[in-house]
Each structure stands twice: as structure tokens, then as C-alpha cells.
Here is the input.
Amino acid sequence: MPARTPLYDAHLEAGAKMVEFAGWELPIRYGSLVEEHQAVRQRAGMFDVSHMTVVDLQGCGARGALRRLLANDVDKIREPGQAIYGCMLDHSGGIIDDLITYRIEDDFYRLVVNAATREADLAWIREQLAEEDVEIVERDDLAMIAVQGPESVAHVVEVLGAQRVEQLKPFRSTSHGDFFIARTGYTGEDGCEIILPGDLAAPLWRKFIERGVVPCGLGARDSLRLEAGLNLYGQDMDTGTTPLESNIAWTVAFDPADRDFIGREALEAQRREGVSRKLTGLLFASGGIPRQGAAVHTPAGEGVVTSGGFGPTVERPVAMARIPVDVDGEVEVELRGRRLAARVVKLPFVRRGKPRDDLPLA
Amino acid sequence: MSDIPSELRFADSHEWVELLEDGLLRVGISDHAQEQLGDLVFVELPEEGAELTRGETCAVVESVKAASDIYAPVSGEIAAINEALNDSPETINNDPYGDGWLFTVKPCDESDLDELMDAEAYAQHISEG
Here is the structure.
């Protein structure tokens, strides 16, 4: 039996088509996926992301433990409320998961990790931090709602009466009574992720619906993040890839040189020798939709599509692919026995509601 | 509840077939199928004159999320395809039994039609999931 979030009944009421995802029963879409996608790009939409795993780390060993556990450095976030994105690596530099870490207080951090990797993550964290003075608490009592889109912050301010959210910068969070509100998301648009007690989720969800915030499913979540060039763990990266070959080298803090994070040695070796693959965007004219797993033919050898689909905002097929590092320009992608022409482009495809200016869309 | 016109015949893979006055058969996908697939963004149709074999893949429709095969509901030869779908595949969502038709077929064996379901049997078929 897949698990249900506190919003399960609200989803059925709204006519959601439910699917199983990472052990949870979640909406894939309510009506039209494309309309949900456009609502987020142009106005405001919301997602039930209660399946995501919240882990609180508390204790005087928390900071030191995280500096070893994560490839990004939590010392970059000095102020309470600040957040940082990065990866948890294994000893060979492979990505165990990507996550956001919030510094709530000096000895209190909150991690939000993927549902699909929940068990592996918790086992790894407990094993690595066994000797540290830190308490690890999985917060399965909490739900999470992501409100996203150019009008989303105004809705959050009004509904929660949380004026200070307006001034909240990206990757900052604040507590407001029972609500933990962060200016983060997974769509490429402005927005908030609200972490709250499970029993408050449905009433809040309904208030947002009354204001016209459009409920959106996993389908739109995927098309939005793909256009925004945001990696999906398990597709675009996994333990077989490092951040340096996953378009997120910027999340690895090599400085200071004496911070001994797990995977550091492997990444330094890879950096010395040079990476052979990169994760990049592919843009298509048309002729079919590239899908995950499709072979990419390049002059320098084969690559693979890691995520593919139709981009409703760029109005054409788009993909993320892992290809030989020096390839640029034109490549070919296999589709049903044919080869589709594609162009290698930098990610993201879409920024703040619109296709990036320099995308070759003509 | 999806729309199931009584004058059409249906395959269990959710294609509909309409017998036209000139003996040709018009083929599309049912309202139930388009609703299950969601917003369609690409259609790959067979070429005019292509030979179809009943039950075999003859076209592909793609939504944002996934590609789905269309199976030939009868054997025969493609008489015409609905070229307008190349530019506006969403027509299948908006009008699955009208402007959203996929192609017409000159059947090689009219008894193939008898193998298809009538509206009532199809309604039963989709209610069983």
C-alpha cells in the first residue's frame, strides 16, 4: 500500500488522477497538465510535496557533521534561516542524494531530501554521524506545500498574514507560528515551500484554492523543473555520477582546502584528470519527443538522454542529456528507429516565465 | 464520464472506427483514451498508401509525459491522413471524434469491422478498467 499525504482527500475532491511515486500516492495531474504548467509560469500554482523527507539535525555536533556529510559547505550559510543546495556523496564521489539544508539555529539544521532515497539517505546519515554529538529526527509529522509562480508570494503573504515573506530573499526561510516558510522551489519561478504540521495542510490548501491558486500534479512539476534545468535525482544523476558531471559543480565547495567532506578525494582526482562527460540541455525542432534512456549520437561518441519531454513554455521538445564533455552544436537522438536532430544548449531553457533570450528557437 | 458515440465501433486498445459513405473507414482515438493520455503534443501518422495489419502499431501519439502506440483496428491501406494534427495535435483532446480523427483506411476485409466492439460493449470495457 502506497502512503497517503494529509492532502489525499483534497486531491480526490479536486478530481486528481493519482499515481504511485516513490511509495506515495500522489496526483499526476488534475485536469490539463499544460494548463497547470502555464499557471505556474504566469500566475500561481501549488504542489503537494509532503512525500519529501524532512530530517532535523540538532546538537553541538550538527555543524561539523554537515561539513563532513555534504559536498557544499554549510559554513557558507551564516545566518539563521539561510539555506543551501548541494549533494551528499559516497566515498567515490557518487551522488547519494541532492538536498536543501536550512540553518534554523546555530546548532539546529533541517534537511529536505528526496522521497525515493529516504531509506538510503537516513541509513547513510545515521552511519556517518554515529559518533557525532547530534540528534537525527525524521519529521514524518510534517506536510509540505510548494506555492510557485510570479503571484505566489502575494498569496502566501495574504493567506498566512506573513508580511515578512515579501522581503524574504531566495534561499532564505522564516518561521511563522506553526509554519516554516522558505523562498525555494523546483520550477524556475519565484515561490515558497511551506513546511507545516500535517493536520494544517488541508485547510491551508483549500484557502489557496479559494484564491485561485491552481493545484498542480507531478506531471507539471516535472515539465517545469526540466525547462528550468533542475536535475531530478535517479534520472539526471545517481551514485554512478558525480556533481562535476551533473551540471552542479557549483554546489561543490573545494574551499577551504582543509574541509574533509565525504567524496572530496574522488572529486579532486576527477577534477585533476578532467571530466569526460557533461550534463547539458538538448533542444529539438520537432518530429517527436525524446525520452529518458534514448541514445545520443555525437561526433565524440555516444551519450544518453537523462530526462526528456515536451516543454510547454518553449513550445518544443526538450531534454537533458549526458554527453561527451567537448561536444557542442548539433547531435542526433534515437527515437523509434529514427534519428532526431537536436542542438546542444546551456541550461536552463526557461528563466522567470520565459524561454531564455539566447535559445536558438527560430 | 466519457463520451461514446453510438454509431462508432471500438477496438479494445481504444481506437474508434467510423464507416463512411464511400466505404472508407475513419479512425481516431476515443474520448476516454485522450482523457487518459492528457494533453497531446505530437502525433506521428503513417504515410498515405501504407499497408496496415490489424492489431499492429501504425501511429504514435505523445503527451507531455509519454508516447503511446496506436494500433490498426482493421487491415487495409491508408487512404488519407489528418495533416492538420501535425500543427495542432491538441485537436485530438478537444474533438476526438470530429476534427481529431487520425486517418482513413481502405479496408481489405470488411469483416474486420465485426471484430470491433459497439458503443455499449466499449462502455463496459472501459468501466472494467
